[in-house]
Specification:
By secondary structure, the chain is mainly α. The chain has 4 helices and 2 strands. 6% of the residues are buried.
Length: 161
């Protein structure tokens, strides 16, 4: 995403508002936008960072704002690395569980297990293990405690002045 169109939109609006004051007011409005452009870009980045943080809290996965070349700004979903598959038979004693789920959910589980080259049992055991791991240590799996507070937010990239 480029911030330049938004800066240009502000410039156009200020120049249009200054039209009533004549050429000198128009020139002053144009100079004013040029002077505040770096601050406006920082405010836009702050808005995007706050939006990314709110979205990340809602979906449970951190969202970062990254600066790219020529003023490009990207919102990036920071997906946690997939954990290693849980071995179904780790040498421990196995327990049998009867699980009742709606047929459409079972169909989806069958498809996902097949796509991943797993049995339904291995797929469900892995899903349960990941859920237990997240419940025991939410910060290690992108839980809410993984979000930085506003005072520790880090911005990296380059800037133009």
């Amino acid at each position: 995403m480029q911030t330049s169109p938004y800066v240009e939109q502000l410039r156009t609006a200020l120049v249009a508002a200054a039209e009533a004051g004549g050429a000198e007011a128009r020139r002053t409005a144009d100079l004013l936008v040029t002077a505040v452009e770096p601050a406006l870009r920082l405010v836009l980045l702050d808005v995007l960072a706050d939006a990314g943080e709110e979205i990340g809290e809602q979906v449970g996965t951190p969202v970062s704002v990254r600066l790219g070349p020529r003023g490009a700004v990207d919102l990036v979903v920071d997906r946690p690395a997939e954990p290693e598959p849980v071995p179904v038979d780790d040498g421990g004693e196995l327990a049998r569980v009867t699980l009742r789920i709606p047929q459409p959910l079972k169909d989806a589980v069958d498809r996902m297990a097949s796509t991943g080259g797993q049995s339904v049992n291995a797929f469900l055991a892995g899903a349960v293990q990941r859920a237990v791991d997240r419940a025991l240590d939410p910060s290690a799996h992108g839980g809410s405690s993984a979000f930085a507070s506003r005072s520790t937010r880090r911005v990296s990239g380059w800037a133009r002045s």
